[in-house]
Structures are given as C-alpha cells and as structure tokens.
Specification:
By secondary structure, the protein is an alpha/beta fold. It contains 15 helices and twelve strands. It has helices spanning about 5-15, 40-45, 60-75, 85-95, 110-125, 135-145, 165-175, 190, 225-240, 245-255, 260-275, 295-300, 315-325, 355-365, 380-390; strands at about 80-85, 105, 130, 150-155, 180-185, 200-205, 220-225, 280-285, 310-315, 330-335, 345, 370-375.
Length: about 400
C-alpha cells in the first residue's frame, strides 16, 4: 500500500487481502488450521512460511494479519502482533523481552493490571522493578542504569491523566541502551505518534477506541519487524495469546471509523472539560489540554489534541462521587473506555481498588475521583447530564 496515504485512507484500505471471490468487506477466515498440497509443502511451510502462508491460528490467520498490517501502517510501525486482550499485549511485550536478573524502570501511575504484571509476575520471576514519578525527568535519570533492559510507561496515565514526556524519557533510556515500551491507549494512535517520539514498542488495548463499540476484547503490540518476529512472536505463539479471527474482523470494521470517532469524542471532551472548570462542586477538573493541567505544555507538544478522557474530583469524597454516578442518566457506569457510549468509572473502588490507601494517595486517586470516557452522544446533552448529577450531590 502507499506510505503517502493519509490516516483515514489507511484506516479503510490498508492490509486488505481479497479471496478469489473479490469481496468488498474483509473476509472472516474462521479456521484454526490450514491444509497443504503435500507432505513436502507442509515441511517447507514449517521451515519458513511465506507472506501469505499460514500454519495455525495461534501463529497467524489471514483476517488477523489484515488487522495487524492495517494498525501497523496507522502507527508507522514495521510490524505488529495481535493478541487476545490488551493485557495479553502488555504481558507479551514485557515477558518476551525479559528474564531473571533484568532491570525495569516503570512509571508509578499505571492501570491496576499493569501494576500486577510488574509488581507480582515479573518480580516473582526475578526481574527487578524500579518505580518512579513518571512526570519527573530527574527521577528517570536517577533510576535508569547501565543494566536497565526496559522502560515502561503509559503515555497518558490511568486514571489521573498524567502526561509523561515520552520524547525525553526515550532519550534517557536509549542513552543507557534500554528499550522503551509504551501503553498508548489513552492518547490513541490518532493524537499521539509514540514511535516518532522515541518508543521502541507500542501497546494498545484494541478493546477500547479501536473497537469503539463495546463488542470484543483485543490487543496489539507494534514495533520493528525484527522485534515482532524474532522476540515477540515466539513467546506469544507458544503461550497462546493470539487474537481470534472474528475479533480481528470486528477491529478492522472499527478502524474504518476510528479517526472520525476519536475526533468527535475529543471535541466533546474538550468542550465539557472547559465548561466544568471552576465549578465549586469539583475539587479538580483533569484534562490534558486545559491550562490548569500541570503537564499541559508537554501534552500540547506530544498530543495534537487532549483526547477523549477526562477526570473529575468531586468535593465530598466517595459518598458524593457515588451520588454523582447514581444520578447520571446518559453516562453509563462501567469500567471500559473509548466507547461510542459515554462511560464513568470510580477508580478507587473498581479498577484500582486493590491498591493500598497510601498508593492511591501517592497516585492522586482520591475517594472523589471519577474517570469519564466521552462518547459520541451530543456534547451539550452530556454536559447537561453531568451538571444535573452534580446538582444531586
């Protein structure tokens, strides 16, 4: 396909493989295995499969490959491997690169399951983990050592929307020979080109904006062809974290409208965050492109727009936050994000509930904090819904 194509064209046309029937919509190849013309052909394919040759769906599948090629083209990556979920992608990206005795430096502000992989799984198998304040470049410089193998961060943290200077962190990591793995879900591939900013490996939960309609789980890991095929693929194909063909087809359909949806949702999030700032019932309005955001200069440099997510810290703590959630009429209580439907989450009691009170305090996850993923509803309706729920508080 053409590298000169713009984003929306890539999202519709990249990676298409048509069968002999010439279908318009991508075909779903619901098969776990493939046949060979002869024993010699099977031997040859197991020795080295060609570009359009497949062995087993755990290794690869035509529908899944279409999705991998399309999202790799969007991200500007050489290759990608699609996984069963976003956490399978995070786990695969890290576990495939690390072994006992290696050192990892990670931002402290992470999704709860990412923290579990670092704190519990990797440390259990002998990997040393150092956590830092992701927004403190001095802390990164002090923590990254000559023997650091990997640096890990969320470009936009969940749920307090800290913005990490990915470009500066990558320079620090690369000076010591470390690889940079970035979870870019909140920033989205529409507003943030993580590879251009210095990331070596980019991870997405495609369950979020890429599907965008609450249907299927999925994830993807993107990077160089050498990394994907020689480091990542052997780990994932032997441990079984592959994406199903049906889910890959859903992701392909989601990608066709990804740019349109993210732009519309971001426009709504920006309007709502701006309108709510200064409301006396709120201790904080957190949105990356607001002037009040502590990392706004970095956010405007590394993200074209502020994204689809905002967080509100409701005065009055958990009781007030629960009254707010229960009074909402349009915004739905759930723990997903990036959906066509607006979704609200109370992190302290759900996604980050396993953290201690001290950890929550250190991360800024207060009892009154709610995270809102702005959907495709009319922004004026959403703002009115949020305001009437605040009245109920």
């Amino acid at each position: 396909m053409s590298e000169n194509w713009k984003t929306r064209t890539k999202l519709v046309h990249e990676g298409i493989r048509r069968s002999q029937y010439g279908e318009v919509s991508e075909a779903i190849f619901l098969t776990q295995g493939f046949v060979y013309d002869s024993a010699e052909a099977a031997e040859a394919r197991f020795l080295k499969a060609g570009e359009d040759e497949f062995i087993y769906a755990r290794y690869g599948n035509p529908t899944v490959r279409m999705f991998e090629e399309r999202i790799a083209a969007l991200e500007g990556a050489e290759d990608g491997f699609a996984t069963a979920s976003g956490m399978a992608a995070v786990n695969g990206a890290l576990m495939s690169m690390l072994r006992a005795g290696d050192h990892v430096v990670s931002a402290r502000a992470l999704f709860g399951s990412c923290l579990y992989i670092l704190e519990e799984i990797l440390q259990r198998f002998g990997v040393e983990i150092t956590f830092v304040d992701g927004t403190d470049l001095g802390a990164w410089r002090d923590a990254v050592r000559e023997d650091t193998k990997v640096v890990f961060l969320e470009s936009l943290s969940n749920p307090t929307l800290e913005v990490i200077d990915l470009q500066a962190v990558a320079e620090i990591a690369h000076a010591k020979g470390a690889k940079v793995v970035v979870d870019n879900v909140f920033a989205t591939p529409i507003w943030s080109r993580a590879l251009d900013l210095g990331a070596d490996v980019v991870v997405y939960s495609t369950t979020k904006h890429i599907d965008g309609q609450g249907r299927c789980l999925g994830g993807v890991v993107l990077g160089t062809r050498e990394y994907v095929r020689k480091t990542l693929e052997p780990y994932l194909k032997h441990t079984g974290g592959a994406m199903s063909p049906f889910n890959a087809w859903v992701m392909l359909k989601g990608m066709e409208t990804l740019d349109l949806r993210v732009r519309a949702m971001t426009e709504g999030a920006t309007m709502i965050a701006t309108a709510l700032e200064g409301d006396a019932r709120l201790a904080r309005v957190i949105y990356p492109h607001l002037d009040s955001h502590p990392d706004v200069a970095v956010a405007r440099r590394i993200m074209e727009k502020g994204g689809t997510m905002l967080s509100l810290d409701i005065a009055g703590g958990q009781a007030a936050a629960f009254r707010f959630l229960n009074a909402l009429k349009i915004v739905t209580i759930s723990n997903n994000l990036g959906d066509a439907k607006s979704i609200v989450t109370h992190p302290a009691t759900t996604t980050h509930q396993r953290l201690s009170d001290d950890q929550k305090q250190a991360l800024g996850i207060t009892p009154g904090l709610v995270r809102i993923s702005i959907g495709l509803e009319d922004a004026e309706d959403l703002l009115a819904d949020i305001r009437q729920a605040l009245d109920a508080v």
